[in-house]
Amino acid sequence: MAVLEIVTVPHPVLRRKAEPIRDEEFGPELERLAHDMIETMRAAPGVGLAAPQVNISKRLIVVEYEDEEEGIPHQLYAVANPRIVRVSPRRVWGVEGCLSIPGMLGEVERAYAITVVGRTPLGQPLRLDLEGWVARIFQHEIDHLNGILFTDRARRVWRASEEEEALTAV
Ligand code: CO
């Protein structure tokens, strides 16, 4: 496994619409890329990463989250061609950062709960009902696949302290 280089703004790959993973691309090689992205996310450290952030314009994301205090167990996802098929009417504001926009945080409104469909890197179909922070991270990562950054959606953006940044980087 390898830690990949994370690109930052204004790298143009971050503004490109990423390519769908084609049927013949599913398999061990895509799984290896997902593992490298997980290593990269953990090294950053962050709680989510999209392939364009490692300069690969393909529709693949990884998300890892847990919150012992809130009783949310450890969850790790690698999803190819993720697509949001349901959003809750309830929307919530929350603070986000981005590994590709170091040092900045912003307040972003997201759907509280979503359903995401996609496939694992080996090609198994996935359907995920997500809520709260994990749903927020997925919405942030799927935005990356469409060339959208959290600063496009934020109502307020500010410079983070290091401590704040570590909690929220995606
Ligand atoms: Co990001």
Please, could you describe this protein's structure?
- With 170 residues, the chain is of the alpha+beta class.
- The protein has a single domain, classed as Peptide Deformylase.
- Helix content is 24%, strand content 35%.
- The protein has helices at 28-43, 132-145, 150-153, 162-168, and strands spanning 48-50, 60-67, 72-87, 91-97, 104-111, 113-119, 125-131, 156-159.
- Strands 1-2-3-6-7 form a 5-stranded antiparallel β-sheet.
- β2 and β3 (72-87) form a beta hairpin.
- The model has no long low-confidence stretch (mean pLDDT 95).
- Residues 98-100, 140, 144, 170 line the site of cobalt (II) ion.
State the major sheet. 5 strands, antiparallel
Across the major sheet, the strand order is: 1-2-3-6-7
The CATH homologous superfamily is called: Peptide deformylase
Number of domains: 1
Flag low-confidence runs.
none
User: What's the total number of strands?
Assistant: 8
| Element-by-element helix/strand order | HEEEEEEEHHEH
What structural class results from the helix and strand content?
A: alpha+beta
Look up the CATH topology.
Peptide Deformylase
What CATH first level would be assigned? Alpha Beta
- Cα end-to-end separation: 20 Å
C-alpha geometry: globular
Bound molecules: cobalt (II) ion
Mean pLDDT: 95
